[in-house]
Automatic annotation (TrEMBL):
Sorted UniProt keywords: Biotin biosynthesis, Pyridoxal phosphate, Transferase
Subunit structure, as described in the record: Homodimer.
Cofactor: pyridoxal 5'-phosphate
Transmembrane segments: none
PANTHER family linked to this entry: 8-AMINO-7-OXONONANOATE SYNTHASE, CLASS II AMINOTRANSFERASE/8-AMINO-7-OXONONANOATE SYNTHASE
A Pfam family assignment: Aminotran_1_2
Name assigned to this protein: 8-amino-7-oxononanoate synthase
Keyword Transferase attached: yes
Family: Belongs to the class-II pyridoxal-phosphate-dependent aminotransferase family. BioF subfamily.
KW Transferase (keyword) present: yes
Pathway of action: Cofactor biosynthesis; biotin biosynthesis
Length: 384
């Protein structure tokens, strides 16, 4: 590319940064789908399910617009979105729900809007990037606690109160962690939240998979005034977008004060139509969760037998920690060459020295394929 003006290389800073990433085996690039799905978040196989496709067709035939064409506060408000939110609130057991274009923006939006100046946002150290980004941009003081360590969370709160912290504490966790596949200790965190403020639970990887009818791991907490949940539509629910669920007054506050909600085009009403269908499928087809649980059990049993040194998560997200970045990506490439779409995950997405294969179990693979993957991993696992 031509350089113009004062001999300045405006792009040098970007080239240098990419070169550093490359030297560290951390340069990312986009690569399309290949092989059997062991990397998507389409856990219960809804993204291409015939009922979802028909729901989309039906919506189009009935004149549901492709785009919302405006902010929700203006002409972007559609009957389909309102129906979906009302139905989702009933389904999840919340007083109210509010839709966003995606989980990242929803998390960012809530964290920058609900915690107030003088409050403390207390995040699990492994919380999603969108939570960290919201924390940086928000008004509340920010602290983290060691992953899954409620005792540490309590110590941080005690220290903050001792230093004069008077506001509410917003404890932000994922019910099922996206890169580790382990669960948050929700019961104990709820006790802390009851004493100090609110529990904000990102259900991205649990919605549709856990709880009665896939209502998530917070199904028994939803509806409390100090519980706010995020249910994403782009993972097990097979579409795209997200819902924030909580007390009516908090949803009304978001409608009035949340800039990423107010100053943005509403999500496509078509996604609301397929969202309604995905909730209906969750009600009608509990076999999907059962088959996925069977995959998790079968993969776990095979892996324990074949690679006992590798620890497992017990959920549909199975992080197989390799350690070095380059070794992880080489292993991922070798597994991919055998026809399995398994992806490597490197820092900064995961902590330094814990690069891993993130095996994602979904209904897009058969039980036989799940077992074949374990066999292949045993064969290719590097001696480190
Ligand atoms: C825990 C968690 N929260 C939020 C998101 C963002 O959701 P979305 O992909 O809908 O933007 C993700 C997905 O990457 C996630 O893993």
């Amino acid at each position: 590319m031509k350089k113009k003006g004062h001999g300045l290389d405006r792009l040098a800073v970007y080239r240098r940064d990419l070169a550093v990433l490359e030297g560290d085996a951390r340069l990312r690039s986009l690569s399309g789908r290949r092989g059997i799905d062991f990397s998507s978040n389409d856990y219960i196989g809804l993204a291409q399910a015939p009922r979802m496709v028909s729901a989309m067709r039906r919506a189009l035939e009935h004149g549901v617009p492709v785009g919302a064409a405006g902010s929700r506060l203006l002409r972007g408000e559609t009957e389909m979105q309102a129906r979906f939110e009302a139905e989702a609130a009933r389904f999840f057991g919340a007083e109210a729900c509010l839709g966003f274009g995606g989980g990242y923006v929803a998390n960012f939006a809530v964290i920058t809007t609900l915690p107030q100046r003088g409050d403390l946002l207390l995040m699990d150290a492994l919380a999603h990037a969108s939570t960290h980004e919201g924390a940086r941009a928000g008004r509340a003081e920010v602290a983290t606690f060691r992953h899954g360590d409620v005792g540490h969370a309590e110590d941080v709160i005690t220290g903050w109160r001792a230093r004069g912290g008077r506001g509410a504490v917003w404890i932000a966790v994922e019910s099922l962690y996206s890169m580790d596949g382990d669960r948050a200790p929700l019961e104990d965190l709820m006790v802390l939240a009851d004493a100090h403020g609110f529990l904000l639970v990102d259900e991205a990887h649990a919605t549709g998979v856990y709880g009665p009818q896939g209502r998530g791991l917070t199904h028994h907490l939803e509806g409390r005034e100090n519980v706010v949940t995020l249910h994403t539509l782009g993972k097990a629910l097979g579409g795209s977008g997200a819902l924030i669920c909580g007390a009516r007054v908090l949803v009304d506050f978001l409608i009035n004060r949340c800039r990423p909600f107010i100053f943005a085009t509403a999500p496509s009403p078509l996604m609301a139509a397929v969202g309604l269908e995905s909730l209906a499928i969750l009600r009608d087809e509990p076999w999907r969760q059962a088959v996925l649980a069977g995959h998790v059990a079968a993969f776990g049993a095979e892996m324990r037998r074949r690679l006992p040194q590798v620890s497992l998560s017990g959920s549909q997200i199975v992080p197989l920690i390799v350690g070095p970045n380059a070794g992880t990506m080489d292993l991922a490439a070798a597994v991919q060459a055998r026809g399995f779409d398994v992806r490597g995950i490197r820092p900064p997405t995961v902590p330094e020295g814990t690069a891993r294969l993130r095996v994602s179990l979904t209904l897009n693979a058969t039980r036989a394929e799940v077992i074949r993957l374990a066999e292949t991993l045993e064969e290719l696992w590097p001696d480190l």
